[in-house]
Specification:
Blueprint: E1 5-10, E2 13-18, H1 28-43, E3 49-54, H2 77-85, E4 91-95, H3 102-107, E5 112-116, E6 120-121, H4 136-144, H5 146-155, E7 159-160, H6 161-167, E8 172-174, H7 178-192, H8 207-211, H9 214-223, H10 232-241, H11 248-263, H12 266-281, E9 299-302, H13 306-317, E10 322-325, H14 329-349, H15 354-362, E11 364-367, E12 378-381, H16 387-400, E13 406-409, H17 416-421, E14 429-434, E15 443-448, H18 454-466, E16 470-475, H19 482-499, H20 503-513, H21 519-526, H22 528-538, H23 543-550, E17 564-566, E18 569-571, H24 574-586, H25 596-616, H26 623-634, H27 643-650, H28 652-666, H29 675-683, H30 687-695
Parallel strand pairs: 2-3, 3-4, 4-5, 5-8, 9-10, 9-12, 10-11, 12-13, 13-14, 15-16
Antiparallel strand pairs: 1-2, 6-7, 14-15, 17-18
The structure holds acetoacetyl-coenzyme A.
Length: 696
C-alpha cells in the first residue's frame, strides 16, 4: 500500500513522518498523506502539539520534479500549507539533510522550525528555471527579511543551519536525536505558552523595507547581475517585491501564477532536463553498484603547467596529498608559484582562509623525480599533447607506479588505447580529461579505453565526484565528445569570417545565444598558437587563425589576437578586419552580409550533427551526456538544455534539412546529416525519444 506518511504519538505530541526515499520529494501520495495526518492530529483533542519530520537521509527536498508538466492531483502543496497555517496547536518542523524548495515551504507553514546540525536549507527553484511556488517568496522574507531572502532565492544556494538560526529561519539547532529534541522543543513551547504567530502574519522583518521601498531596488541591483536572458530571476524579483505592499493571500496567488507560467516554459524544461541528465550521467553501463572503486589516498600529477597545476589543486582542495612532478626545477617553481597565486586570489576574494591556504599548500609534494609517483594510488599525466612523448612517459610510469594504481592521461584528443598499449597494465589505464582552468571547470570527461577495467572506471568516477567535478564517461575517438564537437564549430566559425562576418559578429551572436564567450574570444584566451601548432603537426590550415599566429598575434597573452586587449577586455581591431578581408580576396570568396540567425545555424547545427554521430558510434551513452559535457565544459547556456536538447526544441527535421542544404551548397561532406539524425527527422522524433527507447 502507498503509505509514505505516518503518524505516531509521543504522549501529547503527534509525530508525522514522511518516508518517501530517496529524498522525500512531495509527490502526490506524500501531499495526500501529509494532508490526512495533519487533519487527524488537528482533530484529535488529546494531541497538543504536532512535529513533522522526514525519514532517511533528508527532510523533504522539494516538489517531485518528475511530476512537473503533468496534470496536478489535489491536494496541492499549498492546500497542505494552508491547512497547517490554520492549526491552533503548536506545529514544529524538525529538519535534517537538505530541506529544499517545497520542503522548506512546508516548514514555513509551521509555527516553528528546529534543525539538526549540518542541515542545509534553501529555495533552489531558480536552478530549475522556476520560482518557489508554494509561498516561499512571501514567507522567507517574513522570516529573514528581504535583504537575506532575495539573494537566497536568486542564487538558489542553501544556507547552513547556523546561518539559518542567526537569520531567524530556524528557531533552534538540535544536538543529538532530532525527533527527541523536537518533541522537547514542543513541550517547552506548550509550557511557556509561547505565542503561536503564523509565518504569514509576521510583519516585523518587513517594516524597514516597507518604510524605505527604494532600498528594494538597491538589493536587487546588488544580487541580480547574471540573469541575462533568464525568465525565472525576473519573476522571482517580481514575486518578492509583492512583500512590500500586497496582502499575502493575493501575493501567494500571483506567485503561483508566475510559477505555473515558468513550469511550462522552455527554459525550465531545459534546466529540469539538465538536472536529470547530470544524474543519469553518473550511471555507467556495465558498472553496477557491485563494482567497488579502488581506494585513493594519494595522487600524483605529472606536469606542472596550466593543466597539471589546476588538476593537482583539485586534490589538495579536498585534502588528498598530491605529488606534482616536472622535468626541471625552473618549470616546477613556476608551476608552484601559479598554484600559490591562485590560492592567494581565493584568499583575497574571501572564499578561502589563509589558514586553509596553508593547509592545502602543505599537501603538495613538488619534485623533479619521477620515482616519487611510486606511492600514488592514482597517477595523472598532464604533459605536452604529443603521442610519442606520452607513450615514452607511460612506459616509464608503469615501471614505477605501485601495483593497482590507476594510470590516467589528461589528453584532450589522443588515442587512449594507443597510450595504454605501451604498458603491461592496459586495464589500469584510462583518460581523465579536465577542462581549463582545471581547478574551476566542473566537467571531467572520463575516457573509457577498450580494455579499461570496470573498477578503474568506477574509481575515476568516484574520484571525479570527490574532487567536485561532474564526470561523464566517453569513448575513445579524436577529441572525445567535447573537443570533437568544438572542432566542428571552429571550422564553421573560420568559414564565416571568410564569407563576410567579423569576429565580433560571430562572438556577439553566440553570447546573445547565452554562451559566456564566443569562439574567437575563447581562442584568444586559450592562445591562438595552441591550435596553430597542432594544425601544423597535422598538416592542416585555418587561414585566418594561422595568419594571425604567424603575425605573432597569439591572443590575450600577447595583447593581440582576434581582438586588441587592454587588460582582459577585447576591442575589435581594424587590422584584423583588413587581414580577414584580404584573406577572402586571396581565396576568391565574395564577402556578403551574414545574419545572426545564420551564425547560430552554421555554428550549432554541425555540432548537433557531430553529436548524433557520437551517439551512433557509442562514444557517448546518451544525448543527455553530451548536453552535460557542453554545459559544464564549454558554458552552453543551461536554460537551453545543451546542444542535443536544444536541437529537439528547434526540430530535428529543420536541422537536418538545413544541413543537407549546407552540404549541397558547400560540397562539404561533414554537413551530410548523420544516419541517426536522418532517422529521427524522418520519424518526427527527438533525441529525447531516442534516449527513452535506448533506456527501455
Ligand atoms: N524530485 C524528484 N526526484 C528527485 C528530487 C526531486 N525534487 N531531488 C532528487 N531527486 C532524485 C534524483 O533524481 C536522484 O534519482 P536517481 O537516484 O534515480 O538518479 C535521487 O533523487 C538522489 O538525488 P541526488 O543523486 O541528487 O542525491 P544527492 O544526495 O547528491 O542530493 C539533493 C540530494 C540535494 C536533494 C539533490 O537531489 C537536489 O538538489 N535535488 C533537487 C532539489 C530541488 O530542486 N528542490 C526544489 C524542487 S522545486 C519545488 O520544490 C517547487 C515548489 O516550490 C513546490
Amino acid at each position: 500500500m502507498d503509505n509514505p506518511v505516518s503518524l505516531r504519538r509521543d504522549g501529547n505530541v503527534a509525530i508525522i513522518t514522511v518516508d518517501n526515499p530517496p529524498v522525500n520529494a512531495l509527490r502526490h501520495g506524500v501531499r495526500k498523506g501529509l494532508f490526512e495526518c495533519f487533519t487527524q492530529a488537528r482533530d484529535d483533542a488529546s494531541v497538543e502539539a504536532i512535529v513533522v519530520t522526514g525519514a532517511g537521509r533528508t527532510f523533504v527536498a522539494g516538489a517531485d520534479i518528475t511530476e512537473f508538466g503533468k496534470p496536478s492531483q489535489p491536494p496541492g502543496l499549498m492546500d497542505v500549507i494552508s491547512l497547517i497555517d490554520d492549526i491552533s496547536k503548536p506545529t514544529i518542523a524538525a529538519v535534517h539533510g537538505t530541506p529544499l524548495g517545497g520542503g522548506l515551504e512546508l516548514t514555513m507553514g509551521c509555527h516553528f522550525r528546529v534543525a539538526a546540525a549540518g542541515t542545509r536549507l534553501g529555495l533552489p527553484e531558480i536552478k530549475l528555471g522556476l520560482i518557489p511556488g508554494a509561498g516561499g517568496t512571501q514567507r522567507l522574507p517574513r522570516l529573514v527579511g528581504v535583504e537575506k531572502a532575495l539573494p537566497m532565492i536568486l542564487s538558489g544556494d542553501p544556507i547552513p543551519a547556523k546561518d539559518a538560526l542567526a537569520a531567524g529561519l530556524v528557531d533552534e539547532i538540535v544536538e543529538g536525536d532530532l525527533v527527541t529534541g523536537a518533541v522537547a522543543f514542543a513541550r517547552k513551547v506548550l509550557a511557556e505558552k509561547r505565542p503561536l504567530t503564523r509565518v504569514k502574519d509576521r510583519e516585523e522583518k518587513l517594516k524597514n523595507i516597507r518604510a524605505n521601498p527604494q532600498k528594494f531596488d538597491e538589493i536587487v541591483a546588488q544580487h541580480a547581475k547574471k540573469t541575462r536572458g533568464l525568465h525565472a530571476p525576473a519573476a522571482a524579483i517580481e514575486a518578492i517585491r509583492m512583500t512590500l505592499d500586497t496582502p499575502i493571500d493575493e501575493a501567494q496567488k500571483k506567485e503561483r501564477e508566475l510559477f505555473l507560467k515558468l513550469v511550462v516554459g522552455d527554459q525550465s524544461k531545459a534546466q529540469r532536463h539538465i538536472f536529470f541528465a547530470e544524474r543519469e550521467a553518473a550511471k555507467v553501463p556495465g558498472i553496477g553498484k557491485d563494482v567497488a572503486p579502488r581506494e585513493i589516498k594519494r595522487a600524483a600529477v605529472i606536469g606542472a603547467g596550466t593543466m597539471g597545476g589546476g588538476i593537482s589543486m583539485n586534490f589538495a582542495n579536498v585534502g588528498i596529498p598530491v605529488t606534482i612532478i616536472e622535468n626541471d626545477e625552473a618549470a616546477l617553481k613556476r608551476g608552484m608559484a601559479t598554484i600559490e597565486k591562485n590560492y592567494q586570489m581565493s584568499v583575497q576574494r574571501g572564499s578561502l582562509t589563509p589558514e586553509n591556504m596553508g593547509k592545502r599548500l602543505a599537501l603538495f609534494n613538488p619534485t623533479t623525480d619521477l620515482n616519487a609517483l611510486k606511492d600514488a594510488d592514482i597517477v595523472i599525466e598532464a604533459v605536452f599533447e604529443n603521442m610519442p612523448v606520452k607513450k615514452e612517459l607511460f612506459g616509464k610510469i608503469e615501471k614505477i607506479a605501485k601495483k593497482g594504481a590507476v594510470l590516467a592521461t589528461n589528453t584532450s584528443y589522443l588515442n587512449v588505447d594507443e597510450i595504454a598499449q605501451v604498458t603491461s597494465r592496459v586495464p589500469d589505464v584510462l583518460g581523465m580529461h579536465f577542462f581549463s582552468p582545471a581547478n574551476v571547470m566542473k566537467l571531467l570527461e572520463i575516457v573509457r579505453g577498450k580494455d579499461t577495467a570496470p573498477d578503474v572506471l568506477a574509481t575515476a568516477m568516484a574520484v571525479g565526484r570527490k574532487i567536485n567535478k561532474v564526470p561523464v564517461v566517453v569513448g575513445v575517438c579524436h577529441g572525445f565528445v567535447g573537443n570533437r564537437m568544438l572542432s566542428a564549430r571552429g571550422i564553421e566559425a573560420e568559414k564565416l569570417l571568410l564569407e563576410g562576418a567579423l569576429p565580433q559578429d560571430v562572438d556577439g551572436a553566440l553570447t546573445e545565444f547565452g554562451f559566456p564567450m564566443g569562439p574567437f574570444a575563447m581562442s584568444d584566451l586559450a592562445g591562438i598558437d595552441v591550435g596553430w601548432r597542432s594544425r601544423k603537426e597535422r598538416g592542416v590550415r585555418a587561414e585566418i587563425a594561422d595568419t594571425l599566429a604567424e603575425a605573432g598575434r597569439f591572443g590575450q597573452k600577447t595583447g593581440k589576437g582576434f581582438y586588441l586587449y587592454e587588460g582582459r577586455s577585447p576591442r575589435p581591431d581594424p587590422e584584423v578586419e583588413k587581414l580577414i578581408v584580404d584573406a577572402s580576396v586571396r581565396l576568391g570568396v565574395t564577402r556578403r552580409n551574414v545574419s545572426k540567425e545564420e551564425i547560430i545555424e552554421r555554428l550549432i547545427y554541425p555540432m548537433v550533427n557531430e553529436g548524433a554521430r557520437i551517439l551512433e558510434e557509442g562514444i557517448a551513452t546518451r544525448p543527455g551526456d553530451i548536453d552535460v559535457v557542453w554545459l559544464y565544459g564549454y558554458g552552453f547556456p543551461a536554460w537551453r538544455g545543451g546542444p542535443m536538447h536544444w536541437a529537439d526544441t528547434v526540430g530535428l527535421k529543420k536541422i537536418r534539412d538545413r544541413l543537407r542544404q549546407l552540404a549541397r551548397e558547400s560540397g562539404d561532406k561533414r554537413h551530410e546529416p548523420a544516419a541517426l539524425l536522418n532517422k529521427l527527422a524522418d520519424e518526427g522524433g527527438t533525441f529525447a525519444d531516442y534516449a527513452r527507447q535506448k533506456a527501455a
